[in-house]
Amino acid sequence: MTSSPVRGLWLALRLEVQESLRSRWFFLYALVFFGLMALLALTGISESRVLGFTGLSRLLVTYIQITMAVLPLFILVTTARSLVGDREAGNLEYMLSFPVGLGQWYWGKFLGRFLLVVFPVIGALLLSLVYGALRGHGLPWQHVALYAGLIAALALCFLGLAFFISSLARSTEVALGVSLALWLILVALLDLFLLSILIRAQFDPAFVVGLALANPLQTFRTAAMILFDPQLILLGPASYVILDNFGVQGYVVWALVYPALLGLAFAALGFWRFARTDLV
Protein backbone atom coordinates (compact mmCIF):
# COMPACT_ATOMS: atom_id res chain seq x y z
CA MET A 1 0.00 0.00 0.00
CA THR A 2 1.47 3.33 -1.03
CA SER A 3 1.36 6.58 0.91
CA SER A 4 -0.64 9.60 -0.17
CA PRO A 5 0.80 11.35 -3.25
CA VAL A 6 1.79 14.50 -1.38
CA ARG A 7 3.33 12.62 1.53
CA GLY A 8 5.22 10.27 -0.78
CA LEU A 9 6.52 13.20 -2.82
CA TRP A 10 7.63 14.97 0.35
CA LEU A 11 9.39 11.89 1.70
CA ALA A 12 11.29 11.38 -1.55
CA LEU A 13 12.24 15.08 -1.66
CA ARG A 14 13.48 15.04 1.92
CA LEU A 15 15.48 11.86 1.33
CA GLU A 16 17.16 13.39 -1.72
CA VAL A 17 18.13 16.48 0.27
CA GLN A 18 19.44 14.42 3.20
CA GLU A 19 21.49 12.14 0.96
CA SER A 20 22.99 15.10 -0.88
CA LEU A 21 23.93 16.83 2.36
CA ARG A 22 25.46 13.61 3.64
CA SER A 23 27.59 13.18 0.51
CA ARG A 24 28.95 16.73 1.00
CA TRP A 25 28.80 17.67 -2.69
CA PHE A 26 26.23 20.34 -1.87
CA PHE A 27 28.60 22.17 0.46
CA LEU A 28 31.36 22.23 -2.14
CA TYR A 29 28.86 23.38 -4.76
CA ALA A 30 27.57 26.17 -2.50
CA LEU A 31 31.13 27.20 -1.67
CA VAL A 32 31.87 27.63 -5.38
CA PHE A 33 29.06 30.13 -5.98
CA PHE A 34 29.28 32.01 -2.70
CA GLY A 35 33.05 32.09 -3.06
CA LEU A 36 32.75 33.33 -6.62
CA MET A 37 30.48 36.17 -5.56
CA ALA A 38 32.78 37.08 -2.67
CA LEU A 39 35.80 37.02 -4.98
CA LEU A 40 34.10 39.28 -7.52
CA ALA A 41 33.18 41.71 -4.75
CA LEU A 42 36.64 41.74 -3.16
CA THR A 43 38.40 42.35 -6.48
CA GLY A 44 36.50 45.62 -6.78
CA ILE A 45 34.80 44.71 -10.02
CA SER A 46 31.77 46.77 -9.02
CA GLU A 47 33.96 49.88 -9.00
CA SER A 48 35.11 49.42 -12.61
CA ARG A 49 33.30 50.46 -15.75
CA VAL A 50 33.11 48.19 -18.80
CA LEU A 51 30.78 48.83 -21.76
CA GLY A 52 28.91 51.34 -19.64
CA PHE A 53 28.22 48.90 -16.78
CA THR A 54 29.28 50.01 -13.33
CA GLY A 55 28.34 49.43 -9.70
CA LEU A 56 26.36 46.33 -8.77
CA SER A 57 25.21 45.91 -12.36
CA ARG A 58 28.79 45.29 -13.46
CA LEU A 59 29.21 42.62 -10.78
CA LEU A 60 25.96 40.90 -11.75
CA VAL A 61 26.86 40.84 -15.45
CA THR A 62 30.13 39.06 -14.69
CA TYR A 63 28.54 36.64 -12.22
CA ILE A 64 25.70 35.62 -14.52
CA GLN A 65 28.06 34.93 -17.43
CA ILE A 66 30.16 32.60 -15.28
CA THR A 67 27.01 30.94 -13.93
CA MET A 68 25.89 30.17 -17.47
CA ALA A 69 28.95 27.96 -17.96
CA VAL A 70 29.24 26.38 -14.51
CA LEU A 71 25.63 25.63 -13.56
CA PRO A 72 24.61 23.45 -16.56
CA LEU A 73 27.86 21.49 -16.44
CA PHE A 74 27.51 20.76 -12.75
CA ILE A 75 23.87 19.73 -13.09
CA LEU A 76 24.57 17.38 -15.99
CA VAL A 77 27.64 15.75 -14.45
CA THR A 78 26.16 15.14 -11.00
CA THR A 79 22.54 14.43 -11.90
CA ALA A 80 22.87 12.29 -15.04
CA ARG A 81 24.40 9.57 -12.87
CA SER A 82 21.62 9.76 -10.31
CA LEU A 83 19.03 7.21 -11.50
CA VAL A 84 21.46 4.84 -13.16
CA GLY A 85 23.76 5.08 -10.15
CA ASP A 86 20.94 4.08 -7.80
CA ARG A 87 20.19 1.13 -10.04
CA GLU A 88 23.82 -0.01 -10.14
CA ALA A 89 24.30 0.35 -6.38
CA GLY A 90 21.08 -1.49 -5.55
CA ASN A 91 19.60 1.54 -3.82
CA LEU A 92 16.66 1.62 -6.18
CA GLU A 93 15.53 -1.86 -5.22
CA TYR A 94 15.74 -0.85 -1.57
CA MET A 95 13.76 2.36 -2.14
CA LEU A 96 10.99 0.60 -4.04
CA SER A 97 10.40 -1.67 -1.05
CA PHE A 98 8.95 1.32 0.80
CA PRO A 99 5.29 2.38 0.41
CA VAL A 100 6.18 5.17 -2.04
CA GLY A 101 5.00 5.12 -5.62
CA LEU A 102 7.51 5.23 -8.45
CA GLY A 103 6.16 8.58 -9.68
CA GLN A 104 6.35 10.06 -6.19
CA TRP A 105 9.93 8.87 -5.82
CA TYR A 106 10.99 10.15 -9.26
CA TRP A 107 9.42 13.61 -9.02
CA GLY A 108 10.36 13.99 -5.35
CA LYS A 109 13.95 13.30 -6.33
CA PHE A 110 13.64 15.81 -9.18
CA LEU A 111 12.25 18.57 -6.95
CA GLY A 112 14.79 17.90 -4.21
CA ARG A 113 17.68 18.16 -6.66
CA PHE A 114 16.16 21.32 -8.15
CA LEU A 115 16.06 23.04 -4.75
CA LEU A 116 19.63 21.98 -4.02
CA VAL A 117 21.11 23.32 -7.27
CA VAL A 118 19.13 26.58 -7.29
CA PHE A 119 19.50 27.67 -3.67
CA PRO A 120 23.26 28.47 -3.66
CA VAL A 121 23.15 30.31 -6.99
CA ILE A 122 20.24 32.52 -5.99
CA GLY A 123 21.65 32.85 -2.48
CA ALA A 124 24.82 34.32 -3.96
CA LEU A 125 22.66 36.83 -5.85
CA LEU A 126 21.10 37.92 -2.57
CA LEU A 127 24.58 38.20 -1.09
CA SER A 128 25.41 40.68 -3.85
CA LEU A 129 22.49 42.85 -2.69
CA VAL A 130 23.89 42.91 0.84
CA TYR A 131 27.30 43.87 -0.54
CA GLY A 132 25.76 46.57 -2.72
CA ALA A 133 23.83 48.04 0.19
CA LEU A 134 26.99 48.16 2.34
CA ARG A 135 28.91 49.89 -0.46
CA GLY A 136 26.13 52.38 -1.11
CA HIS A 137 25.35 51.15 -4.63
CA GLY A 138 21.90 51.27 -6.10
CA LEU A 139 20.11 47.95 -5.74
CA PRO A 140 18.73 46.63 -9.07
CA TRP A 141 15.91 44.59 -7.57
CA GLN A 142 14.27 44.02 -10.94
CA HIS A 143 17.47 42.66 -12.45
CA VAL A 144 18.13 40.37 -9.51
CA ALA A 145 14.57 39.01 -9.60
CA LEU A 146 14.79 38.36 -13.32
CA TYR A 147 18.20 36.73 -12.98
CA ALA A 148 16.78 34.48 -10.27
CA GLY A 149 13.98 33.48 -12.65
CA LEU A 150 16.44 32.82 -15.48
CA ILE A 151 18.60 30.68 -13.18
CA ALA A 152 15.58 28.65 -12.09
CA ALA A 153 14.50 28.14 -15.72
CA LEU A 154 18.02 27.09 -16.77
CA ALA A 155 18.25 24.69 -13.82
CA LEU A 156 14.90 23.11 -14.72
CA CYS A 157 16.03 22.72 -18.32
CA PHE A 158 19.27 20.90 -17.57
CA LEU A 159 17.81 18.89 -14.72
CA GLY A 160 15.21 17.56 -17.12
CA LEU A 161 17.91 16.72 -19.67
CA ALA A 162 20.02 15.03 -16.99
CA PHE A 163 17.13 12.90 -15.71
CA PHE A 164 16.31 11.92 -19.29
CA ILE A 165 19.91 10.88 -19.93
CA SER A 166 20.03 8.95 -16.67
CA SER A 167 16.83 7.09 -17.52
CA LEU A 168 18.30 5.93 -20.84
CA ALA A 169 21.87 5.12 -19.80
CA ARG A 170 22.83 1.64 -18.68
CA SER A 171 25.94 2.69 -16.77
CA THR A 172 27.23 5.77 -14.98
CA GLU A 173 30.14 6.01 -17.44
CA VAL A 174 27.77 6.27 -20.40
CA ALA A 175 25.61 8.83 -18.61
CA LEU A 176 28.64 10.95 -17.75
CA GLY A 177 30.03 10.77 -21.29
CA VAL A 178 26.73 11.75 -22.91
CA SER A 179 26.30 14.62 -20.45
CA LEU A 180 29.74 16.07 -21.17
CA ALA A 181 29.22 15.70 -24.93
CA LEU A 182 25.86 17.49 -24.73
CA TRP A 183 27.32 20.36 -22.72
CA LEU A 184 30.25 20.78 -25.14
CA ILE A 185 27.91 20.81 -28.15
CA LEU A 186 25.62 23.44 -26.63
CA VAL A 187 28.57 25.63 -25.64
CA ALA A 188 30.15 25.29 -29.08
CA LEU A 189 26.89 26.30 -30.76
CA LEU A 190 26.60 29.55 -28.82
CA ASP A 191 28.44 31.56 -31.48
CA LEU A 192 29.89 29.07 -33.94
CA PHE A 193 26.49 27.97 -35.18
CA LEU A 194 25.19 31.47 -35.73
CA LEU A 195 28.31 32.96 -37.31
CA SER A 196 29.37 30.10 -39.56
CA ILE A 197 25.95 29.52 -41.13
CA LEU A 198 25.15 33.19 -41.63
CA ILE A 199 28.49 33.85 -43.30
CA ARG A 200 28.99 30.72 -45.41
CA ALA A 201 25.44 29.74 -46.32
CA GLN A 202 22.46 31.53 -47.74
CA PHE A 203 19.87 30.66 -45.10
CA ASP A 204 17.17 33.05 -44.01
CA PRO A 205 18.67 34.91 -41.01
CA ALA A 206 15.42 34.55 -39.08
CA PHE A 207 15.59 30.76 -39.49
CA VAL A 208 19.22 30.62 -38.38
CA VAL A 209 18.60 32.85 -35.37
CA GLY A 210 15.57 30.75 -34.46
CA LEU A 211 17.67 27.59 -34.45
CA ALA A 212 20.33 29.29 -32.36
CA LEU A 213 17.74 30.43 -29.82
CA ALA A 214 16.52 26.85 -29.50
CA ASN A 215 19.78 26.36 -27.59
CA PRO A 216 18.81 27.04 -23.94
CA LEU A 217 22.28 28.42 -23.22
CA GLN A 218 21.92 30.98 -26.00
CA THR A 219 18.43 31.87 -24.77
CA PHE A 220 19.78 32.43 -21.26
CA ARG A 221 22.77 34.41 -22.47
CA THR A 222 20.70 36.72 -24.67
CA ALA A 223 18.13 37.35 -21.94
CA ALA A 224 20.92 38.22 -19.50
CA MET A 225 22.32 40.69 -22.02
CA ILE A 226 18.99 42.29 -22.86
CA LEU A 227 18.61 43.72 -19.35
CA PHE A 228 21.62 45.99 -19.75
CA ASP A 229 21.63 46.22 -23.54
CA PRO A 230 17.97 46.53 -24.66
CA GLN A 231 19.05 47.08 -28.27
CA LEU A 232 21.28 43.96 -28.20
CA ILE A 233 24.10 45.87 -29.83
CA LEU A 234 26.58 43.19 -28.77
CA LEU A 235 24.77 40.61 -30.93
CA GLY A 236 25.11 42.61 -34.11
CA PRO A 237 22.64 42.02 -36.99
CA ALA A 238 20.97 39.12 -35.15
CA SER A 239 19.46 41.64 -32.75
CA TYR A 240 17.08 42.94 -35.46
CA VAL A 241 15.56 39.50 -35.92
CA ILE A 242 15.13 38.96 -32.19
CA LEU A 243 13.67 42.37 -31.40
CA ASP A 244 11.39 42.45 -34.45
CA ASN A 245 9.88 39.05 -33.60
CA PHE A 246 9.86 39.18 -29.82
CA GLY A 247 10.48 42.65 -28.49
CA VAL A 248 12.30 43.08 -25.19
CA GLN A 249 9.49 41.95 -22.88
CA GLY A 250 8.41 39.16 -25.19
CA TYR A 251 11.91 37.76 -25.34
CA VAL A 252 12.29 37.85 -21.56
CA VAL A 253 9.07 35.84 -21.24
CA TRP A 254 10.37 33.38 -23.85
CA ALA A 255 13.65 33.00 -21.96
CA LEU A 256 11.79 32.22 -18.74
CA VAL A 257 9.16 29.85 -20.16
CA TYR A 258 10.94 27.95 -22.94
CA PRO A 259 13.83 26.40 -20.96
CA ALA A 260 11.53 25.49 -18.07
CA LEU A 261 9.01 23.75 -20.32
CA LEU A 262 11.78 22.03 -22.25
CA GLY A 263 13.27 20.66 -19.03
CA LEU A 264 9.91 19.48 -17.70
CA ALA A 265 9.15 17.79 -21.03
CA PHE A 266 12.45 15.88 -20.97
CA ALA A 267 11.90 14.98 -17.31
CA ALA A 268 8.47 13.58 -18.20
CA LEU A 269 10.00 11.59 -21.08
CA GLY A 270 12.62 10.33 -18.67
CA PHE A 271 9.96 9.14 -16.25
CA TRP A 272 8.03 7.44 -19.06
CA ARG A 273 11.17 5.62 -20.11
CA PHE A 274 12.27 4.87 -16.55
CA ALA A 275 8.91 3.38 -15.59
CA ARG A 276 9.03 0.96 -18.56
CA THR A 277 12.52 -0.44 -18.04
CA ASP A 278 13.90 -3.07 -15.71
CA LEU A 279 14.23 -1.03 -12.52
CA VAL A 280 16.45 -3.49 -10.68
Report on this model:
The chain is an all-alpha fold and 280 residues long. It contains 13 helices and no strands. Helix 1 (5-23) packs across helix 6 (102-135) and helix 3 (55-79) runs antiparallel to helix 8. The longest helix has 34 residues, at 102-135.
Features:
79% helix; mainly alpha
Number of strands: 0
Cα distance, first to last residue? Answer: 20 Å
Low-confidence runs of at least 5 consecutive residues: 47-53
Radius of gyration over alpha carbons?
20 Å
How many distinct helices?
Answer: 13
Shape: globular
Kindly estimate the percentage of residues that lie in beta strands according to DSSP: under 5%
Please tell me the overall pLDDT.
80
**What is the element string, with H for helices and E for strands?**
HHHHHHHHHHHHH
Q: Biggest β-sheet, characterized?
A: none
Query: Which structural category do the helix and sheet elements fall into?
Result: mainly alpha
Proportion of helical residues: over 70%
